[in-house]
Amino acid sequence: MLGDRIIHRVADGVRIPGTWRHAFICNGGRYFLTDLAIYADGLIDCWGLVTLEGFEEKLRSGWVATTLPDGAEASAHDLAMWKFSEPQVWIEPEWLLAEVRDTIESLNGRPDSTERCMEAVEVFLADRTEENRDTAREAYLAIPVSKRLYALGDMDHKDWPLQVLVAGPGGTLESRPDETISQKAYDSALTYFEERAQSIAAHRSRVPADGPVTSHAPAVHLYQGFPRKSEDDPGMKGLRNDYPAPLDIDGVTYTSVAHAYWGLSVADPETRTAIATAEHAFAARQLASEADRREGWEQARTAVMTGLLRIKYAQHPDLAEILLATDDATLVYDELDSGYWGDNGGRGRNWTGRLLELVRSELHAGRAGIGLPG
């Protein structure tokens, strides 16, 4: 149910992740199509935050509607109004309640009913006792009916092999209670699960053709700092934009990347000269904030910063070595005065960190003798 429908709300300054699904609210005899928001802390927004127990009450009372009477008026706010004509609904109150419970589990990184069922199936396949089969069958029945078809993630076979497996030879299917499972059908289900396990194992061990998705080196956090002078061994401080590492650009020497960035941002050449040699990066920013910005700066600033970082690490090989030593780590850059350049506890866009990773990759390419296009 999670999919890409990721939302959040803020409670006491804490970001609470959530997701949503469509639902109908019945208020004053009219049915309103709305978004049912479900949050990791167990609260559900159905035109008001309620606990899971409160949500069950809303379901039982019909406030969250799973029955839509023929001829009833419906509305989608600011979109349309209509009347139901021979409506068909696909969910019962207990199914929706079970789905919401599953969603809360998933939001908290815990196994939902489908995952618990598949864990029970694995136990049964490893030790095929009737007791383990009964446990797997109970776990299957605990999956909301509306989700059972998708339990295997196989839209060709749906949940047919799963039903057969947990029923066993001579058993009956949930979807076809009058049909008895033959030995042949059961053997076919066993073969399905054996092949599925092999396929999953092969997929887990497969490395994408372009390499792994995530970095293998631990993330590096470049904390906010206020370096005033260069050091023989600056460590990660040397990767800060305000670290004193002079840049020669078009005959002008800027004290640091930050000085160059702010200097190039202003329209007045005299102010630019003053910024280039400002006592520290904070002073450079102050001078720039009091001057007129160059036209188009907001749209060009990311490209300018990219160029400045390339110049810094080309003109300072010792600092380039520090950057290269971070391997392929995610670089988390703090810039408390800018949510654009800094990560700032996950609230910013971390563009400096991302551009440092880009320049690092270019340095790795040069060291490996890999020519870059263009």
| Helical content band | 40-55%
Separation of the first and last Cα atoms: 44 Å
- Per DSSP, the total helix count is 13
Shape: elongated
Decide which structural class fits the backbone. Answer: alpha+beta
Major sheet characteristics? 8 strands, mixed
Number of strands: 12
> On the 0-100 scale, what is the average pLDDT?
93
What low-confidence regions span 5 or more consecutive residues with pLDDT below 50? none
Strand content: 5-15%
Order of helix and strand elements from N to C terminus = EEEEEHEEEHHHHHHEEEHHHHHEH
CA-atom Rg in angstroms: 30 Å
Task: Give descriptors for this structure.
elongated; two-stranded parallel sheet; 13 helices; alpha+beta; 42% helix; 374 residues
Structure, described:
The chain has 374 residues and is of the alpha+beta class. The chain has helices spanning 52-61, 93-107, 113-126, 130-141, 145-148, 160-167, 183-205, 257-265, 269-276, 281-289, 297-315, 317-324, 351-367, and strands at residues 7-11, 14-27, 30-39, 44-45, 49-50, 64-65, 73-76, 80-83, 220-222, 247-249, 252-254, 331-333. Strands 1, 2, 3, 4, 5, 6, 7 and 8 form an eight-stranded mixed beta sheet that branches. A hairpin with a 2-residue loop joins strand 2 and strand 3 (30-39). Helix 1 packs antiparallel against helix 2. The longest helix has 23 residues, at 183-205. The two termini are 44 Å apart.
